[in-house]
Design goal:
The structure holds 2 protein chains of 2 kinds.
Chain A: E1 4-7, E2 10-13, E3 19-25, E4 31-38, E5 42-51, E6 54-57, E7 65-66, E8 76-78, E9 87-94, E10 106-107, E11 111-115
Parallel strand pairs in A: 2-11
Antiparallel strand pairs in A: 1-3, 3-8, 4-5, 4-9, 5-6, 7-8, 9-10, 9-11
Chain B: E1 5-7, E2 10-14, E3 19-24, E4 31-37, E5 44-49, E6 55-58, E7 61-65, E8 71-76, E9 85-93, E10 101-104, E11 108-113
The chains are: A mainly beta, B mainly beta.
């Protein structure tokens, strides 16, 4: 089954404790992206990756890092989490990076992060 | 980043009623997508509209792209409890040679009761 998986689904942590949220897709997609979803703000893009070893900042990259060492994986790293990073995070992938109008972005199930 | 404004933010209706959700922006988009998101899940694409004035139907859901490609609407006829969820619009600007930008709306939370 074609899917995007994220782990963990739920995480409660404390300020300053480094964490990683993993994302994996099995559709051989070139493009992967991370979003955060906050009430009243919609989904905002954090980072995206066009291909292996190619990453770029989205709209709200501060406080986050990413890496793309393999095509299928795109982990999101919070080196020193702060309470304002409490949010619902989504990983997404697409085959063409939305370069074609008909391209579709597939989303993972989300990771709910709480930073105390 | 130019946000897409959706209205209403919340909508609670009874089964069988009709409703319309609006998605507005001052920017022009190459295409406009509508997603539905259910609790505990990621958004799922419902439809993509690409031409100004385009109308697409998906069973009881009718999607329209504005003539100027700055706005869109989603109309649901005879709503059912299964339509309950968060509806998100997202505008895309196609960038040649680089990843395109998908700008999401603020969302409309719909609840349909029996």
């Amino acid at each position: 089954e074609a899917q995007v998986t994220q782990n963990p689904r739920y995480l409660i942590t404390v300020t300053g404790k480094k964490l990683t949220v993993t994302c994996s897709q099995n559709m051989n997609h070139e493009y992967m992206s991370w979003y955060r979803q906050d009430p009243g703000l919609g989904l905002r893009q954090i980072y995206y990756s066009m291909n292996v070893e190619v990453t770029d900042k989205g709209d709200v990259p501060e406080g986050y890092k990413v890496s793309r060492k393999e095509k299928r994986n795109f982990p999101l790293i919070l080196e020193s989490p702060s309470p304002n990073q409490t949010s619902l995070y989504f990983c997404a992938s697409s085959s063409l990076g939305l370069a074609e109008i008909t391209d579709t972005q597939y989303f993972g199930p989300g990771t709910r992060l709480t930073v105390l | 980043t130019q946000l897409l404004e959706q209205s209403p933010q919340f909508l609670s209706i009874q089964e069988g009623e009709n409703l319309t959700v609006y998605c507005n922006s001052s920017s022009v988009f190459s295409s406009l997508q509508w997603y539905r998101q259910e609790p505990g899940e990621g958004p799922v694409l419902l439809v993509t509209v690409v031409t100004g004035g385009e109308v697409k139907k998906l069973k009881r859901l009718t999607f329209q792209f504005g003539d100027a490609r700055k706005d869109s609407s989603l109309h649901i006829t005879a709503a059912q409890p299964g339509d309950t969820g968060l509806y998100l619009c997202a505008g895309s600007r196609i960038n040649t040679g680089t990843a395109s930008k998908l700008t999401f709306g603020t969302g409309t939370r719909l609840q349909v009761t029996l």
